[in-house]
Amino acid sequence: MIERWLFGAEDERRLVAVQVGLVALVGLRVALGPYAQLAGQPDALFRPVWFLRGLGGMPPLAVIVSLQVAGTLAALAAPARRDRWRQVGLVAAWLSLLVLAGLRASRGKVLHNDVLLLLVCVPFLATVARRRSGWQLRTAMVVVAGAYFFAGFHKLRLSGLGWVTSDNVQNVLTVASRSGRVRFPEVAELVAGNAAACKLLGAAILALEVTFPVVLWRAGARPYYAATAALFHAGTWLLLGIDYWLWAAVTPLVLVGWGAGRPRRRHLGRPVPGRARPPAPAVPAGTPAAPATG
Amino acid sequence: MKHGEVGVGARAFVWTFLAVFVVCGVAGLDLWPFTGWHLFSHVRTDRITAWEITTVDTGGEERPVAFADLPAGYRTSSHVAAGLAGLTEAERGDVCRAWASADPERRQVVEVRVYRIEESLGDPADRTRELRHTCAVAGGS
Question: Nearest CA of chain B to the CA of A228: how many Å?
Fold first, then answer.
């Protein structure tokens, strides 16, 4: 059953829309991400991720900027091309982002800002998003659902319900409000001052995360989860000063049916009171399957 | 494309990719960009732990290193400081020299000190500051 869903059909226009959206996001991130600031790091502070261990230290500014330019150009060129060339553009831009984000994560701290976009792109790197071949999008959906679910799973595994019921969220917000990275610290302070609101917020976050896999089998739930996730990340920026705009963009891109054709109007075959039953619509041979996702 | 029409290669690719994703996710393994998804997963109590790194110049003046004012390459230094105990003496020396070289006024730094700070969120007076590492910086920065 899982295999049948994973390798099921999708609307071609939706696949193309998601692929173009991913190319745009990768290009924006490569162009605007804070990678040039990494240059000049002393070698002793370089803690490379596994695939950058061959490097002795952070590359010089010229190398980082060259990667940004190459990735941006590849992303700019990709959407204008068809099929294979769009895929080549995505691969080139994605490789640039992988290295740049990998360098950013090579400072002794695991960073998640770029991870969701990088992983969601992986299925689209392998083959051209072709008509009715939906596994790229379905795999990306599993990654999105899994990312949120695992974040919640580890909160429960390591902290239990105390993550919600203790003063955890209050303390997180208090630390953030004093960190200097929050643009409006008074907002974080205001929320931190209300214990009940903090517990409610914690419960909402945990509920969102652990129930996220619902989007895999309830297509109708996808827009709601996508909107809530975007709101969640906006709140994370407002209250904690942590920038997860990529997650806020990737999640709706993958879950919402952008570019998909309207599903066939099912009421066409249903008798309407006071009217004669219309004839069944003719479906030409080879018509793509109606999108199975919302 | 019908169920049976997806190639064997594509199927193997998808299942391998998802297997790595799920194993890292369940086990909490960080094999970046596959990660263990530990996002604020530990309960924050009202006692917070932080690391402070200071430099001492030839005149004996000790000043904290303001990492927030330094380039991004320095800004995760508290994580590096937390892992100093696991480094060899030579590696610790290299890290300390890197911190010493970040002095914005180019003072002649002779020593780097690493403190572990624990404080209460509710009572700033309830604070401990413990010297964990000291590195002599040969020849100054």
Answer: 18
> What CA–CA distances, in Å, run from A267 to A10, A45, A270, B71?
22, 64, 5, 61
pTM of the model: 0.86
**pLDDT per residue of chain B (141 residues) written in tens, 0 to 9:** 454 477 888 889 999 999 999 999 999 999 999 999 999 999 999 999 999 999 999 999 999 998 888 888 888 888 899 999 899 999 999 999 999 988 878 888 999 999 999 999 988 889 999 999 999 987 544
Per-domain residue ranges of chain A = 9-133, 142-256
Write out A71-92 in H/E/C secondary structure: HHHHHHHHHHCCHHHHHHHHHH
Q: Does A115 touch chain B (CB under 8 A)?
A: yes
Residues of chain B with Cβ-Cβ distance to A159 below 8 Å are 41-43
Is the CB of A289 inside 8 Å of chain B's CB atoms? no
B33 chain-A contacts, CB cut-off 8 A:
98, 101-102, 114-115, 118-119
